[in-house]
Write a structure and sequence with these properties.
Chain lengths: ~60, ~350
């Protein structure tokens, strides 16, 4: 998975980004940058959700012995 | 022809038996069941006509057995050094509804009394699953359903599958080995034991005492999805979470991709709205500031204007021409006798010589 983050971690990160816009730290200069970052994250997420598959590996260990 | 000694004869018979049969499965009814010295188990296996002696260790006895139960054993036939024929049993399991139910109830009571199924000992499964261990037969329909639903619901999970038997006399040991493997050699966060529906006999391997204990003592949380909703096994009771079916395990372990997409859309929409609101709010703030600055400047201008007007009034009040007009005169020059000074009145300028100087009374 990209940047070793799980989908849930990315989702949580995206939701946290929204909080900044309501916080005291909000300023217009940074807002555009943050907005672009969030949109990129959302786009990645949608792509991940569409494309990511589980990786299934059947172990070669013989458990009958 | 050389005669055998009893020892060599028994050895030859055993070699022949081993060659001819190796391991055999024998099904019958248990009779004369007893445990000696807490270690050795003896019983007879009989049908309507015949009976055969059986021997095994207590360690190999994985389900409670009583006289009258129908069982199947995997054993090797052997002639003992006393010339007695018996089956050395490697594995035994009850067969038939009545025997299975009886063994299930006996073991359930024993393990419940030990606290093995204590609900307070259940652990929560990790919420954000990245690595999952699955114990199942890869040929089983339940396994295929499980993988299908996992892939439909979520992605990015590394699933390590331990392929084992999930029914039959050898299944419990294989599942135990897989549990041991995941606990000791893998980094999975949860172990799922999967098996689709089947008869009570098919599912009876999940009532194996050693397997139930292995599940209860697993360091990694275990979830089971064995059979259908109505099936209950002791493995289910020992697991941290028991799902109703293999598909239900997948639903429990993963969030729904569709739901996640909906969340992303919601967040993006909220983001846009929030940004517009904040920009609007900032715009209003700037407009307020401009308005306040403008008002402040106007107030200052007004104050300054009033100040100027008051200063003008003072200046006008002290205008020398106005004083001269009132009849006063300005004397310009050094005051000393004989000196000529300049006297200015409202209408005239006069030069005058100082004739006399005296102090005012």
């Amino acid at each position: 998975m990209k940047e070793n983050k799980t989908l849930n971690q990315k989702l949580a990160e995206l939701e946290k980004s929204t909080e900044w816009f309501y916080s005291e730290e909000f300023n217009l200069d940074e807002a555009v940058k943050k907005y672009k970052e969030a949109i990129k994250l959302a786009t990645d997420l949608k792509k991940d959700l569409d494309e990511l598959k589980n990786e299934v590996e059947v172990l070669s260990v013989d458990f009958s012995k | 022809m050389n005669a055998f000694t009893p020892t060599t004869f028994i050895e030859v018979v055993n070699q022949t038996l081993d060659y001819a049969y190796g391991s055999v499965m024998v099904e019958g009814e248990v009779a004369s069941f007893k445990v000696n010295q807490g270690k050795w188990v003896f019983f007879d296996l009989k049908d309507e006509e015949s009976s055969v002696s059986c021997f095994m260790t207590l360690y190999q006895l994985r389900m409670p057995i009583e006289d009258g139960m129908k069982v199947v054993v995997r054993a090797t036939p052997k002639l003992t050094k006393w010339g007695k024929f018996s089956l050395t049993v490697q594995a035994i399991k009850p067969v038939g509804e009545g025997s299975l139910k009886k063994a299930f109830e006996l073991l359930k009571k024993k393990l419940t009394d030990e606290g093995l199924f204590d609900p307070t000992k259940k652990r929560e499964l990790p919420k954000d699953l990245a690595r999952l261990g699955v114990i199942s037969s890869t040929q089983a329909a339940g396994y295929a359903d499980f993988i299908k639903i996992m892939n439909a619901r979520w992605g990015g999970i590394r699933i390590e599958v331990a392929h084992t038997q999930v029914q039959g006399i050898d299944a419990p040991d294989q599942i135990i080995r897989a549990l041991k493997y995941f606990n000791e050699k893998s980094e999975v966060e949860t172990i799922a034991i999967i098996r689709g529906g089947g008869s009570a006999d098919d599912l009876s391997c999940f009532n194996d005492e050693a397997l139930v204990r292995a599940i209860a003592s697993s360091k990694i949380p275990v979830v089971t999805g064995i059979g259908h909703e109505v099936d209950e096994s002791l493995a289910d009771l020992a697991a941290d979470l028991c799902a109703s079916t293999p598909s239900n395990v997948a639903e429990i372990l993963t969030p729904d991709k569709k739901e996640a997409k909906r969340r992303v859309y919601e967040v993006v929409e909220r983001f846009g709205k929030t940004l517009v609101e904040r920009i609007e709010s900032e715009k209003n703030n700037v407009e307020d500031k401009i308005l306040r600055t403008k008002e402040s400047i106007l107030t200052k201008v007004d104050e300054y204007q009033r100040f100027l007007e008051s200063q003008m009034k003072i200046l006008i009040a002290h205008d020398p021409e106005k004083v001269l007009k009132q009849g006063y005169a300005i004397l310009d020059g050094k005051i000393s006798l004989g000196n000529v000074v300049k006297i200015t009145t409202f209408e005239k300028e006069i030069k005058a010589e100082i004739k006399e100087i005296y102090e005012r009374e």
